[in-house]
Structures are given as structure tokens and as C-alpha cells.
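Incident review: delayed structure delivery

Summary: a single-chain prediction request sat in the queue longer than the usual turnaround. Root cause was a stuck worker, restarted by the on-call engineer. No data loss occurred. The affected request and its eventual output are reproduced below so the record is complete for anyone auditing the incident later.

Affected input:
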Amino acid sequence: MISYNQEIVINADRAEVVKFLSDPIRVAGMLGHVALLERIDGGNSYYASLVLASQSRVIAVPGKMEGPLFSLSNISYPGASNDGRVRWEIVFDVRERPAGDTVVRVFVSFDIKAGLFGRFSSLPKAIAVMPEHLVKYH
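Output delivered after worker restart:
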């Protein structure tokens, strides 16, 4: 499993941040590598496509994403490919600070079974930096 986390300070109150991060369409748009295709049965699950890219290849991995799922101060969005070989999760830990702004700790994890992208020689390196890329550059 590959993971990355970073703390971000947002100059807004917690309620505004939670409202934004509770919208799966906005979160997918912010991530840039997850396309929500259709809501499943009107619930919190979506048919999704995870887009992985290297300098020479782009592939879309079909799957499903859930969310938002709420627990204490966390909002999470787990997902998996249809074949179960790719799993990811984005977790936002949202906390208000006494100054009135909000601290969001973003956790991103990827678990990719070996051999999935063996024929694409440049993708393993791109996948290894994906969690950090999603947090820092999107």
C-alpha cells in the first residue's frame, strides 16, 4: 500500500469546509483523477473511473467509489476497481482551530496488486507518487 498525508489550513469555518468536502462531485473534480459516471441506486455509491497517467500512457480503470462516509471528524471516500486489483481511499480529517480557520489533514492511500500494469513500463513509478500527487497538485 502506498499512502501520503498532509495538513492544510483553510481560512474558512469548519461548517463551510465540511459542506464542500461532503459533495462527492466537488471532491472528484478537485482530485482530477476520479470521474464519477453515475450514482448507483440513489445512494452514496458511484460508478467511477480512476485515471492513471505516466509520460507516455493514460489508462482509465473502471470501478466504484463510495462516499461521503462520515465518522467523528472524518469524511472518507473509498473506491475500488471492478476487478478488485486497485483500491484507494481519500480521508479528510476536518478540525476547527481557535483562530476560526480550519485544519484539514488529507490522507490518501492506494493499494495496487502486482502485475496489473506490468505491460506499461512507466506506470509503476507514476502510481507510486499518485497519493502525494493528488494532495499536493490538485
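Verification: The chain has a mean pLDDT of 84.
Action items: add queue-age alerting; document worker restart procedure.
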